[in-house]
Design brief:
Strand order of the largest sheet: 1-2-8-4
Low-confidence stretches: none
Helix content: 40-55%
Distance between the termini: 38 Å
Number of strands: 11
CATH topology of the largest domain: Jelly Rolls
Largest sheet: 4 strands, antiparallel
Shape: globular
Radius of gyration: 18 Å
Length: 240
């Protein structure tokens, strides 16, 4: 089966919260340009300093935006699932990115060519207003994650990250290695191994053969820092 299908989604049934907020008439103009895509683990969607050719609206996939330093070290700044879109710089009039975007958890998304996205924004005031509000959410979320990475201990940050991932993928199990988690959190793999082992020992998660399972969500919420609650409430506050 091809990873992409030339079939537009049914209005209100895309699985992406942003797209499903569009009025039916506005959405009908956009739907023919949307392409169903199956994203693979660590698939590169946007390259640093490269052109942003497509915008992605995840449904079951989870996408990380990463800042890459000169020595090759990486840290995650944004986590995007069914609540948002990837490639926001296109809406801001910039056709390149200084960060890279990769698929963190494989799944489905809707792909929209950047040109079609720009044309839709010019034509549709509801879409433009929707994307502007989402840009504000992303700006505040990114600022909170930066503060979290600087001020909070790794166990609280890992709980926050696991909860954010759990919210966005909508399932208890997802693929993730300690090495990859270390890259996303900006810490050594050995640190993640110790912290994840503590969470597993407490019965909050299980982790084996590259698969994490959330066992006790309420326990993770108790262990997470304030940033999780802030980020979770932010979207609903802007999009009531």
């Amino acid at each position: 089966m091809s990873p992409e299908t030339k079939r537009g989604p049914t209005p209100g049934r895309t699985g992406n919260r942003l797209l499903d907020r569009l009025p039916e008439e506005e959405y009908a103009h956009l739907a023919p340009s949307l392409v169903a895509a199956s994203l693979e683990l660590k698939q590169l969607l946007i390259q640093i300093d490269g052109p942003v050719r497509d915008v992605y609206f995840p449904t079951t996939a989870l996408i990380s935006t990463l800042v890459v330093m000169e020595d090759g070290s990486e840290v995650e700044t944004t986590l995007t699932g069914a609540e948002g879109l990837v490639g926001l710089t296109v809406a801001l009039g910039v056709d390149f990115s200084l960060s890279k975007a990769i698929c963190q958890i494989p799944g489905a998304a809707w792909r929209l060519p950047a040109r079609a996205f720009r044309e839709a924004l010019e034509r549709s005031r509801p879409l433009d207003a929707l994307v502007r509000r989402y840009a504000a959410v992303l700006l505040w979320q990114t600022a909170q994650v930066v503060a979290c990475n600087a001020l909070h201990p790794v166990p609280e940050r890992l709980c926050r990250w696991l909860l954010m991932s759990h919210d966005r993928v909508g399932r208890d199990e997802f693929p993730m290695t300690h090495e990859f988690m270390g890259e996303l959190l900006g810490v050594r793999r050995q640190t993640v191994t110790v912290v994840a082992g503590t969470l597993q020992g407490a019965g909050l998660i299980t982790h084996r053969r590259g698969i994490i399972r959330v066992v006790d969500r309420s326990g993770l919420e108790d262990g997470a820092c304030e940033c999780y609650r802030f980020i979770r409430s932010l979207y609903d506050r802007v999009f009531p």
